[in-house]
Amino acid sequence: MARQQGWFALILALAIAAGALLFNFPLQLGLDLRGGSQLTLEVLPAGAVKTVKKEQLEAVKEVLERRINGLGVAESTLQTVGEDQLVLQLPGEQDPSRAAKVLGTTALLEFRAQKPGTEQEMQSLLQLKRQVQSVLNQKRARAAAASDRQSPPPEIQLKAEDLAQAMQKLGLSVPAGTSESDQLDLLLSTVNSKIVALYEPATLTGKDLTTAGRQQQQTGSGWDVTLSFNREGGDKFAALTKSIAGTRRLLGIVLDGRSISEASVGPEFKVAGISGGSASITGNFSAEESRDLEVQLRGGSLPLPIKVVEVRTVGPSLGAENIRTSLVASLSGLALVAVFMAVTYRLPGIVAVVALSLYALFNLAVYSLIPVTLSLPGIAGFILSIGMAVDANVLIFERIKEELRAGNTLIRSIDTGFSLALSSIVDGHVTGLISCAALFALGTGLVKGFAVTLAIGLLLSLFTSLTCTRSLIRVLMSYPALRRTIYFLPHAQLPLGAKS
Amino acid sequence: MSSSVSTTTAPTPRFRISRYRQLAWWVSGLACLFSLLGLLLCLLNPAIASPLKPGLDFTGGTQIQIERRCPAPACSAITAAQVQLQLAGVTLPPQAGDAPPRLTGTAVQVLDQGRSLVIRLPALSPTQSNAVITAISVAVGPLDPAGTSVNTIGPTLGAQLLQGSLISLLVSFAAISLYIAVRYDLLFAFLALLCLAHDVLITCGVFAWLGLVAGIEVDSLFAVSLITVAGYSVTDTVVVFDRIREQKTSLAHLPLQQQVDVAVDATLTRSLYTSLTTLLPLLGLIFFGGSSLFWFSVALAIGIAVGSWSSIGVAPTLLPVLSRR
User: Fold this and answer.
1) Which domains does chain B have, with CATH numbers?
2) Beta-carbon separation of A329 and B285 below 8 A
3) pLDDT tens digits, B33-71
4) How many CB atoms lie under 10 A from the CB of residue B295?
């Protein structure tokens, strides 16, 4: 008896601890329940790296974490999934397009000197670039003015034949019906990559940056991105500028294989190069572009390219709706189960309802302890594990009833009921856990969440049905007033002579 | 252990499953055939061309769900064709050098008397999805941003999800049968696996027919429900087998068929009660739960009901037949 009371005290202590835990550390809700965006990013092999390994994934994650901090979204989480994927959760974020853009680019910054003897070609490309850029800028300004209902600035037209000629010269062909601005975009990106081909290999890269900032241009509405190099980077920059100072060769700033800025270096830097360890990129950026570039450069370039493979965005009211309806539904179902248990199994049925309530409490406490982020499939796993826990109790009580019908005494029936039901309960739970292991090891996101909650539920269910229910019944049986078979089984089902 | 012997020395089963075994076999056989037919028709249907209609999770693409902010009392009527026409005229911004997809002939569903729309598109970038939402708001009036949900699954990820789901299903089947083969014997493991296949097949069959008739698609939650059904099915079967094994010595004088009758009779109440208590929360989710868990709950409810049936009517009745050989 003392042992049973020991169990009883332990269960009571656990219940109080679980309640306190839940009170202090509320459950984490998944994005499908509270609204927000979730992005799955896949790391792609590139260059010498044929398959992505754990270290490389971690390296990518580190860079992305710095960029996410730069974005300033509260409570964002970034987790690695499997061999080559990362899942980013942005709670409350309704528009993941900026995050996708900032995170998805490699942001490899290079400083490269122009190859000697390419001045002629560079001149014509730069002229074309300026032309296209000014038309695009005008278009952008007109669109902005139109949305602000201001009178639009005059439109600069690039003549259709000029455009066609420039396209032809670069060997571009576009399908008929492509809009003019699409054609211009294509032209600009081709010009930028042609320019890159005229540069020497990079001697200085974004690795040597200490920080990046931005400032508004003194003339014009654009923004510049400012850079500070470490000592080594400052030396490299000085050497690089010295090598081309006073020549007609240019210094190119290349981001992800596209030339974003070209600068000439004056003859006054012939002796020592540009020293001081800082520079700025005048790349005709809008305020937002300059901010994003700053974030990317501060975070460093990605060691491997990544691709956004999955985006899920849920509005907050849909999330609230999901919570409310799922809660109401599961609670009403469970209330019916409680009524059923109490009616069918009488006293032990009521005990089981108490034990199952404790079980639900323990379950939630474990969720907040691990912590498990509760999503819709997670709730489904929780409800199903309650089903399994009820099953364990049903198995035991059916056995107890059987023993009573066979004419055994009450206490003896309870003991045999528990011990005979044990092997079925264990087998059922073990097979369930095997499924969970397979789901967890091989499944993805949603499936994993389900497997975790179901597995926790199954382990706890083994504990509660074999200890909680049992010791509660044993404690009750120590009161003679309750030790009556009528509380377990209708009299009609008892064998003659066994009534008490 | 003396008490367990005393309960089983005088077995007089109220219910003899062996009397109904022909009927049980016919019902299960026909249900399996009907399910196979559904899967086959889905496979032959040129619009589906796979045994079950794959949803966004497996095909990849973008699904946009929007809610309109309408003045009382009701939303103005809109048709799917209206939205399709509007979308066909949209030019999307290009993404990372790839030409944007054309939006002609997109699948549009109008729900809740025109209050919300579900649109299925090729995989779009977040910027492109925003462009689509802007275009729709032009066509159907103001939208409620809090009720918008956008899901994009890249085509390679879709294939990965499908592969992952299938592999985890097969691996868990194999591991479960290995466990039963070790704990019981090979024949029990075979029968448990047969039952499991029966339950999963019929659940899939129902969804194949739903796909054919009502266009219902299966997603990764469906794969989850299949694995859960498998777990339940095995648990149910094991409870009966556990009872058969337990009384093997005490009932050794009886033929196997009668031993099975006694075991099924003894576990019948438990099987029915357990299915009932599991079905209650599921029925709650089906009738009162949100739309996101509706088909998941339906799949589970069907699977658990079928699983309960097969653990009573199929596995135990086949045991005497197969063990004679």
Assistant:
1) 2-9+16-54+157-323 (1.20.1640.10), 61-153 (3.30.70)
2) yes
3) 999 999 999 999 888 888 888 888 888 888 888 888 776
4) 20
Instruction: List, for residues B194-234, the tens digit of each pLDDT value.
Output: 999 999 999 999 999 999 998 888 987 888 788 788 888 88
**Closest partner CB to B130 (pick from A95, A315, A390):** A95
DSSP conformational letter for B76: P
CA distance B151 to B119: 10
Residue B96 vs residues A64, A106, A185, B87, B125: alpha-carbon distances, Å: 19, 12, 11, 22, 10
The closest CB to that of A442, out of B164, B277, B296, belongs to B164
Q: Which is nearest to A468 in space by CA: A381, A370, A396? A: A396
Q: For the residues of B1-66, what is the DSSP string, one character each? A: -HHHHHHHSS---SS-GGGGHHHHHHHHHHHHHHHHHHHHHHHH-TTT-SSS-B-HHHH-EEEEEE
DSSP designation for B184: S
Chain A residue numbers with beta carbons less than 8 Å from the beta carbon of B171 are: 438, 441-442
In this complex, do A326 and B227 lie within 8 Å of one another by their Cβ atoms?
no
User: Which residues of A, range 231-290, sit inside 8 Å of B by Cβ?
Assistant: none
User: Which CATH superfamily is A2-31+315-493 part of?
Assistant: Multidrug efflux transporter AcrB transmembrane domain (1.20.1640.10)
Contacts with B, A 34-63, CB within 8 Å: 35, 40, 42
Nearest to B232, CA basis, from A483, A496, A384: A384
Q: Which residues of B touch A101 (CB under 8 A)?
A: 126-127
Tell me whether residues B146 and A316 touch, CB distance under 8 A: yes
Complex ipTM > 0.90 = no
Residue type (1 letter), B168: S
For B127, nearest residue in chain A (alpha carbons): A97
Report how far residue A260's alpha carbon sits from residue A189's, in angstroms, rounded to the nearest whole number.
10
Q: Which two tokens stand for residue B263?
A: 């075991």
Chain B residues touching residue A107 (CB < 8 angstroms): none
CB atoms within 10 A of CB B252: 8
8 Å CB contact between A226 and A214: yes
Nearest-Cα residue of chain B relative to residue A408: B3
CATH 3.40.350.10 fits A34-107+310-314, yes or no: no
The pLDDT assigned to B28 comes to: 95
Say whether residue A168 is in contact with chain B using an 8 A CB cutoff: no
